[in-house]
Predict the 3D structure of the following.
Amino acid sequence: MRLRSEHAKFVADKVAVDLLNCGFVKLKSGLDPVSELAKEIIVVDIAKDNDLNAKARALVDKQEEDIEFFQADRKQLFWMVKKRLANELGLKLSWEERLSDLSHQILDELYEEDLIEYNVVENRVKNVIYHAIEEYLSRQSEIEDRVHEKINHYKRKVMYGTEEYEILYDKLYEEELRKLGL
């Protein structure tokens, strides 16, 4: 999945705000509980994807000698192993299917926890969640580029990878999201 754990909070906040603003969903306990539950589900999904990648990488690494001997394409082999593992674990690799499942999980949990109420077809609410995540991801890279550009133009150079850089990055990233209404 293209989601990263550090963005789970922002995606969850966007889901909550979009549900609030859609006009046909009532948030029974406000934004925060909806956002927190969505974040938990997103974090679990990201962890599953990271675990899948780690398992696939480990299997490929075990065959390092054979890969070199047969001059195999390591990247292609990784994807073949990942696909097989995903099938065994019941995970979807297709982005659209994965995002649809994630949206449905969020909707189901929000309803089960009695955090939302709606009087339209369930699929319509799921689509709000789906589009919120999709929109966030489509804007994510352009936001990241702007933040990196701002940091690069600071008078005092901040080294990439340092704690100071990460704190500054997070602060500027949140500012950019607020500017976009996310």
